[in-house]
Amino acid sequence: MDTYDDGTEDGAIGSSSSEKRQRSADGEERSDEDDGETAAKKKLRLSKEQSAVLEESFREHNTLNPKQKLVLAKKLNLKPRQVEVWFQNRRARTKLKQTEVDCELLKKCCKNLTEENRRLQRELVELRSLKRSPHLFMQVPATTLTLCPTCETARQRRPQIRS
DNA sequence: GATAGGTGGCCAGTTACATCA
DNA sequence: AGTGATGTAACTGGCCACCTA
């Protein structure tokens, strides 16, 4: 296993679990990696350059190993924890987007199936009415009576019923 | 070898804040 | 200037995998 005792400035590496355990253990809320500069640092927006580099890195690999995280953090002058959080949030956004895309796809699919179902229902009604008047049924061109592969197979397997 | 405890990573959900219309 | 909507940085708790004593 990798160890993170490599002197990260604020010990933010691997903070997600150890820090949360620490927080829950002593009841400390929102310590925000208290390293002296208390309260001064609220949430800050990442710069466009930082975001761009993170995006580029995310395109290459959407997860980071500890080493990559450190390198990236150093490069961007961020804390490793910030990089880690950014990747987590980015993965969540990607997943959400993909879910939306999938949802749209399923809606389209549903619409198509509904239309197809209506069409088949109409066809069924038509065929039933034809069946009720056999003289018309026999006049129906063969092309009108083509069956889908499943039905065709079933029809062929069906034992011939003699009247 | 089985087991408990520690650690770190990821995820889903939430909160807090910045920005914009 | 005030405000609601939206985006996102950061947090929280839970779960899992791995390591070690």
From TrEMBL:
Residues 37-97 form the Homeobox domain. Residues 1-48 are annotated as: Disordered. One of its GO terms (cellular component) is nucleus. It comes from the Eukaryota. Residues 39-98 bind DNA. Residues 18-28 have a biased composition (Basic and acidic residues). One of its GO terms (molecular function) is DNA-binding transcription factor activity, RNA polymerase II-specific. Residues 96-133 form a coiled coil. It is found in: Nucleus. InterPro entries: HD, HD-ZIP_Homeobox_LZ_Class_II, Homeobox_CS, Homeodomain-like_sf, Leu_zip_homeo. Its main location: nucleus. Keywords: Coiled coil, DNA-binding, Homeobox, Nucleus, Transcription, Transcription regulation. The keyword Ribosomal protein does not apply. Belongs to the HD-ZIP homeobox family. Class II subfamily. This is Homeobox-leucine zipper protein HAT14. The keyword Oxidoreductase does not apply.
